[in-house]
Automatic annotation (TrEMBL):
This is Transport permease protein. It comes from Streptomyces griseoviridis. InterPro entries: ABC2_TM, ABC2_TM_bact-type, ABC_2_transport, Nod_factor_ABC_transporter. Its main location: membrane. PANTHER family: NODULATION PROTEIN J.
Amino acid sequence: MTAYFLRDTAVLTGRTLRHVTRSVDTVITTVITPVAMMLMFVYVFGGAIDTGSVAYVTYMLPGILLITIASGVSYTAYRLYTDMKSGLFERFQSMPIARSGVLWAHVVTSLVANVLSLVIVVGIALLMGFRTGAGLPAWLAVAGILLLFTLALTWIAVIPGLSAGSVEGAGAFAYPLIFLPFVSSAFVPTETMPGPVRWFAEHQPVTSIVDTVRDLFAQRPVGDDIWTALLWCAGILVVAYAFAMAAYRRKIA
């Protein structure tokens, strides 16, 4: 059973990846927003924000990476919505393939497309002055956290992709996710925020993820932040997966 599932998922993933490679503008569009934000914050606002001896582009890059992921997963919802409306899912149901393989193909495609977008954003950040002395273990830890965060947000994206009433609605869910890093430690220290905003910023998932990635890049001890970040990502993933599968079962019932 597992072998059939993996085979079917691989074939369907190849199909969705071909859609991405034939539409490179989707990857370009995904990175335009975070890169524009990075340019604006570094060259317009960066001089007014005190981050000590750390270059502002290095300080704010972890938040930009999370915005890149949030921007990218909106295309997962879009692709799922268009597949649903085209009747493709109904055709797949009449074929001897693993039903959940259809969803996992979109999820794997999201991971691949977002990795490509993240690499582009990091490359541009390097041109803008981002520097880190992090070794291979730290980079692998950063990659693992970002992949887990991407997986969690992708399964959130599956829900509107299956249940939205319009293509605009399928992608609109990403706007709050893109906004969330702005109320966190991503761009300014939380100590500068007023009381209620500071409390929210310090207790929402983005702050723990940003702080963990920032400490890994700076070669500092990550402390409890990494466990908080992993728990947030795993919790979001489990809940989103459960709701996404429930929505899928309703659609194919």
